[in-house]
């Protein structure tokens, strides 16, 4: 049921764990207008009050997760796990300032939100999305400008954040700024800085445990006799520590997972991709010697956490959700379960996730306890949280700022989110009709569609064509629609390249952002956001490459190598290799980064004698593709550092589209796939194909 505000609610019969007063006992809790007004065993229930019977349940304060990358889409998941306050640690600051307003937090509803600054970093950072600070004078202006903009908007930040790349000067500036604004700066110990020096500078909040290890050490490399107790003593006093044990423990937990976690269905397509990539990597690690090191790291981090507790160092739980294997909401309980494995008592873990977390966030006068005058964030549990951390999973009821949400409603909200994500996925997977790329006159010998898929999520769709222009020139064209994500709009790349005598003789490429109506976003003169043109230098086979941004000249590059391919089309890269590449090395040009810098890369081509599959190996990873008679696209995949990408042929979705599909190219001998396209990635099938080929005497 949904109980309206501006009325009194009486919670009756529960064993109340105030987390700041007497021992737990059966008591009544009165709430008026979202605020706790009284707690006691013999309270008189005001006339007209709504009564909520919690007999047999345990009532505790709502849980607080101090480290998340917040997305309002996950509100239902946080509440499903009883998390009523989160501290964002990496989402865009402007968006979070708007999202944390009362009207935004009540619309679904969702947990209260504390916002932080951008994650400040130096130019040495390895973390994408960080705010890179310049030299100290410039950095002072940068930080001041951000704080000024927040102040002008009538908003406030609850913390500042930084990574381990910040310099000593940056570190001092951020701590000074935090102190001036009455907030804390959260982060690891910067590289090259001692714990004592960081403390002397005024840092009090520590994120993660790795940065306090001796220089150059990792948990798995420490000697067996390493004294964690002595290290913990160095943190006693001003420090509060967010250990993030699940950061490594998730690897061990999910390494041998046979089925995807159910919660994955509730995440958006972008998060599903990240999770599947992580889970695949965990599975690979499980079959390698690295798993023993991961287990050793988990065990030693648990030792350190236990030593911190023994030394009296306050620990504050943060999940790091939604990293792979760490779900919004339940990831916090998973983190506390790791604490329990380290020997930390369940009730101490609950105190850390409530009263101690509220104090660390500067919110102890509003949250973290069940006491008069505090916001009515409470959860009702089916078993005693003093006995097990698992009692915190799936609360029977959540009281969020005085709004009562029962278990069935929590389930309904999660189910609705799952249904929404399924609908989003289906919409994202629906056929997309693209206009053919601008091709010259000639015979069309190949025309089709393909999807680029990352762990089940379609990232892009492309329409490709090949035209035999006569005179020995083949023209390869593609229009690639890159689908929008949570952080970037849809984009469209158009690439047309002419190849003669197995060398790129000229090409044109453009990249545009795509408006909601499907039209390209261009300047007043119709210029694309990015364009490049390649033409052969007179009398040579080398390319001169000219780049423009909205028509403005960016620069020229003369490629030192003879270019056999311009990257941009998943399918055509394989077709061009099959038609024009020799076995071994060739060179390709691709455009990288926000300024689309041209980069020449060496591509090693191999053609399987067993089944005719094509392998292309370059600095980004390994591609494997197969083409049937007429160069019909059958399959393709690319293994990169970020994970695996699949190139999937799109079959005609209507008779009209079927008429466009053409596949009449004459591929060289030995470069037509002869195996089963449905089993191309099956080692058994490859062995069978090789045996069959040998049996045929080929």
Description:
The protein is α/β, with parallel strands linked by helices and 698 residues long. Helix content is 27%, strand content 30%. The longest helix is centred in the middle third of the chain and has 23 residues, at 407-429.
Task: List the main descriptive attributes of the protein structure presented here.
698 residues, alpha/beta, 2 domains, 17-stranded mixed beta sheet, 8-stranded mixed beta sheet, 16 helices
- What structural class is derived from the secondary structure elements? alpha/beta
- Domain unit count: 2
Distance between the termini: 73 Å
Radius of gyration: 30 Å
Relative helix content = 25-40%
Uncertain spans: 1-5
What's the helix and strand layout?
Elements: E1 8-16, E2 25-32, E3 35-40, E4 50-53, E5 58-61, E6 63-68, H1 75-80, E7 83-88, H2 93-99, H3 102-106, E8 112-114, E9 116-121, E10 131-132, H4 136-152, E11 159-162, H5 168-180, E12 184-187, H6 195-201, E13 205-207, H7 228-233, E14 240-242, H8 246-254, H9 269-286, H10 290-310, H11 330-341, H12 346-360, E15 378-381, E16 397-400, E17 403-406, H13 407-429, E18 443-454, E19 457-470, E20 473-482, E21 491-500, E22 503-514, E23 520-521, E24 530-536, E25 543-549, E26 552-558, E27 565-566, H14 570-580, E28 584-592, E29 597-607, E30 614-618, E31 621-627, E32 633-640, E33 643-649, H15 655-658, E34 662-663, H16 683-695
Parallel strand pairs: 1-4, 1-5, 6-7, 7-8, 9-10, 9-11, 11-12, 12-13, 13-14, 27-28
Antiparallel strand pairs: 1-2, 2-3, 5-15, 15-16, 16-17, 18-19, 18-33, 18-34, 19-20, 20-21, 21-22, 22-23, 22-24, 24-25, 25-26, 28-29, 29-30, 30-31, 31-32, 32-33
């Amino acid at each position: 049921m949904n109980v309206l505000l501006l009325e009194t609610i009486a919670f009756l019969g529960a064993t109340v764990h105030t987390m700041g007063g007497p021992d737990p006992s059966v008591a009544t809790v009165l709430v008026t207008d979202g605020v706790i007004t009284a707690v006691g065993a013999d309270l008189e229930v005001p006339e007209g009050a709504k009564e909520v019977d919690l007999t047999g349940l345990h009532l505790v304060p709502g849980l607080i997760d101090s480290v998340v990358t917040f997305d309002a889409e996950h509100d239902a998941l946080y509440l499903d796990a009883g998390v009523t306050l989160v501290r964002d640690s990496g989402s865009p600051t402007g968006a979070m300032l708007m999202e944390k307003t009362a009207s935004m937090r009540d619309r679904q509803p969702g947990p209260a939100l504390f916002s932080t600054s951008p994650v400040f970093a130096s130019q040495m950072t390895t973390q994408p999305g960080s705010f890179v600070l310049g030299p100290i004078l410039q950095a002072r202006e940068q930080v001041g400008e951000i704080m000024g903009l927040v102040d002008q908007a009538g908003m406030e930040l609850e913390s500042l954040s930084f990574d381990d790349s910040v310099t000593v000067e940056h570190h001092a500036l951020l701590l000074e700024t935090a102190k001036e604004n009455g907030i804390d700066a959260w982060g690891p110990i910067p590289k090259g800085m001692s714990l004592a020096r960081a403390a002397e500078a005024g840092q009090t909040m520590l994120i993660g445990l790795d940065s306090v290890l001796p220089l150059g050490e990792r948990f798995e490399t420490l000697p067996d006799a390493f004294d964690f107790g002595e290290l913990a003593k160095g943190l006693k006093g001003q420090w509060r520590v967010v250990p993030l044990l699940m950061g490594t423990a998730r690897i061990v937990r999910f390494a041998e997972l046979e089925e995807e976690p159910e919660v994955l269905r509730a995440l958006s397509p972008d998060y599903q991709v990240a999770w599947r990539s992580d889970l695949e990597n965990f599975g690979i690690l499980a079959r390698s010697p690295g798993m023993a090191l991961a287990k050793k790291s988990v065990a030693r981090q648990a030792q350190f956490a236990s030593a911190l507790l023994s030394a009296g160092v306050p620990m504050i739980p943060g999940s790091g959700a939604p990293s792979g294997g760490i779900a919004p909401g339940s990831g916090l309980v998973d983190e506390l379960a790791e604490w329990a494995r380290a020997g930390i008592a369940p009730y101490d873990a609950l105190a850390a996730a409530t009263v101690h977390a509220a104090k660390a966030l500067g919110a102890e006068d509003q949250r973290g306890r069940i006491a008069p005058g505090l916001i009515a964030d409470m959860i009702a549990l089916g078993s005693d949280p003093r006995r097990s951390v698992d009692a915190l999973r799936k609360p029977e009821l959540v009281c969020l700022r005085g709004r009562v949400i029962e278990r069935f409603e929590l389930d309904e909200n999660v189910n609705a989110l799952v249904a929404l994500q399924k609908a989003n996925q289906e919409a994202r997977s629906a056929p997309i009709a693209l206009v053919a790329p601008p091709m010259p006159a000639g015979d069309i010998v190949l025309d089709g569609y393909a999807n680029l898929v990352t762990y089940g999520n379609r990232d892009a769709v492309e329409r490709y064509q090949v035209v035999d222009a006569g005179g020995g020139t083949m023209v390869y064209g593609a229009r690639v629609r890159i689908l929008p994500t949570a952080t970037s709009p849809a984009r469209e790349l158009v690439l047309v390249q002419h190849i003669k005598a197995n060398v790129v003789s000229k090409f044109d490429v453009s990249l545009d952002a795509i408006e909601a109506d499907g039209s390209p976003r261009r300047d007043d003169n119709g210029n694309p956001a990015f364009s490049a043109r390649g033409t052969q230098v007179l009398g040579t086979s080398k390319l001169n490459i000219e780049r423009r941004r909205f028509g403005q000249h960016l620069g020229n590059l003369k490629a030192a190598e003879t270019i056999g391919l311009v990257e941009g089309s998943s399918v055509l890269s394989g077709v061009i290799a099959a038609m024009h590449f020799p076995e071994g090395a060739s060179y390709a040009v691709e455009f990288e980064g926000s300024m689309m810098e041209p980069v020449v890369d060496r591509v090693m081509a191999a053609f399987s004698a067993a089944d005719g599959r094509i392998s292309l190996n370059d600095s980004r990873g390994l591609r494997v593709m197969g083409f049937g008679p007429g160069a019909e696209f059958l399959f393709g995949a690319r293994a990169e550092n970020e994970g695996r990408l699949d190139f999937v042929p799109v079959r005609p979705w209507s008779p009209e589209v079927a008429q466009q599909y053409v596949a009449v190219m004459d591929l060289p001998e030995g470069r037509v796939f002869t195996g089963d396209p449905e089993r191309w990635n099956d080692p058994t099938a490859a062995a069978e194909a090789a045996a069959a080929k040998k049996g045929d005497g080929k």
